[in-house]
Design brief:
Elements (H helix, E strand, L loop, with lengths): L2 H6 L5 E5 L24 H14 L10 E4 L1 H5 L10 H11 L4 E5 L2
Parallel strand pairs: 1-3
Antiparallel strand pairs: 1-2
Helix pairs in contact: 2-4
Length: 108
């Protein structure tokens, strides 16, 4: 199942695509734990991801992934205030606050 099919089937409402995830598991187990050593990414990204995990209770490997897919009704319901790189944590926090089903997959 590719990224487009995952969103279109309605299994998830938000999809985070991460270049650091190499094993793509089916979205049946949305709460599956995936870990990523901070050595593979810059330390600032790891710190931001850890802070994001603490405040949103999401188990993301990389919050600053830059590749996010949203269902239209989700993104239209979010008021975006940031216009720079601050948009990454803002979107992540607001999607988590809406209790959207989030799934993270690897891309190459």
């Amino acid at each position: 199942m590719d990224e487009k099919e995952i969103v279109l089937t309605g299994l998830v409402s938000t999809l985070f695509l991460d270049v650091n995830i190499h094993d793509i598991s089916p979205p049946g187990n949305l709460l599956a734990c995936r870990t990523l050593l901070c050595v593979s990414a810059s330390s600032s990204r790891c710190i931001l991801t850890v802070l994001s995990k603490m405040f949103t209770n999401l188990n993301l490997t990389d919050m600053e992934t830059c590749y996010k897919v949203f269902r239209t009704e989700i993104i239209k319901s979010i008021t975006i205030e940031q216009n720079g790189f601050g948009i990454e944590p803002e979107l992540t926090a607001k999607v988590a606050k809406k209790h959207c089903r989030i799934y993270e997959v690897g891309i190459s």
